[in-house]
Amino acid sequence: MQDYEPEQITILTTYSGQLFCLRNLMPANEFAGVKVHVVDKYQGEENDIVLLSLVRSNTQGKVGFLSIPNRVCVALSRAKKGLYCIGNSEILGKIKLWSNIFGTLKEKEQMGKTLHLCCQNHPEKKIQVACAEDFRQAPEGGCLTPCEFRLDCGHVCTRVCHPYDTLHKKYKCPKDSMDTYMETDQQSDENEPMVIKLKECPRCRTPIRRNLRYGSHINRSLAEIEKKFTEQQVSDLQNELQRLTFLAELNARCTMASNSGQMTKIQGEVDTIRMVLDKIGSFTEQDTVEVKRVLKDLQEKIPYTGLGISENERQMVVSALSLAPGHWYKCPNGHVYIITECGGAMETRRCPDCNAMIGGGSHILASGNQVASEMDGSQHPAWSEANNVLNYDQLNL
């Protein structure tokens, strides 16, 4: 299910009785290519994936052939990429050889009562398999999340998550598409893209869309198809634009948090949003709701103004200083400061946070400095009555 061919899988058992039992339980049409052997007859051979059945399980605690070291060595050394052992560890653990093996596996957390599966496309989706029924949680080798990969025909993949055929080169869309009504120019060179053209009348070779007899009917049919196809494309485009908008906002917030040394404060929210934005497949309405919810949490921790304080704290600072609008400024790096008296810049200083030039002279701000509108909403400095009046809503004067 993960791009491994049946021929790359071998099932090994130490007893001929189980060999015949397994073959009877494996329909040829479903397991064609999968090899089933006893360990003794598999010496000198190997395969990519080996499923080893350690069948001994009884009330007497008898281990049988599984206590023979050379047989165990053969059984455990046949896999090139993956070895999965299924057996009764309580009985096998009574043998020193197996006890040592189990000790090593436990140290590396490679042993347990369930098989741990993790979806390649959605690493956060994990499955614990203890019986055949549990594999229904990963019917295509991934998880139960809809694939929703956008196909060339305009439709989406209808299967659940699958780690194989990620580009969907082998997948055939079950729905009707534009290809039903068009054909390709088979004379194109192998290195050139195939040219799509309208079907032609077999007698006059006129494209059917321009045929006088059937033209109106064909036009109506094609118009309906093209309309549906366009709506799908528009919907996908809008969703992707929304994804990019969220990504831009997230990057801006991360930059702001990094500059103010508060990145660790929001790391959890950032990781959650990136997991949604970076996922494979289309960006859905559910994804939009989730990202907006987490962005709201980010806004509460670090407001978008870049001040590094909450909205309540900003209001308290402005209220405590009781300055008229237009006295708040910021340096080229966004650090806020105030100019008292008339609010006009008359001297220069160095920003205590970044050492950039702040203030100015003759009521002219130093290069890169500007009014800090995020503090009190002012759009102009308050160094004169004429300019100060612009900081108020003239409609309410």
Please describe what this structure looks like.
With 397 residues, the protein is an alpha/beta fold. Helices cover 34% and strands 15% of the residues. Strands 2-1-3-4 form a four-stranded parallel beta sheet, covered by helices on one side. Helix 6 packs antiparallel against helix 7, helix 6 packs parallel to helix 8 and helix 7 runs antiparallel to helix 8. It is flat.
The rough form would be described as flat
Radius of gyration: 35 Å
Strand content: 5-15%
Number of helices: 11
Oligomerization state: single chain
What is the element string, with H for helices and E for strands?
A: EHHEEHEHHEEEEHHHHEEEEEEHH
Largest sheet: 4 strands, parallel
Unreliable stretches (pLDDT < 50, length at least 5) are 178-186
**Mean pLDDT score, rounded?**
81
Order of adjacent strands in the largest pleated sheet:
2-1-3-4
SS class = alpha/beta
Give a short synopsis of this structure.
The chain has 397 residues and is of the alpha/beta class.
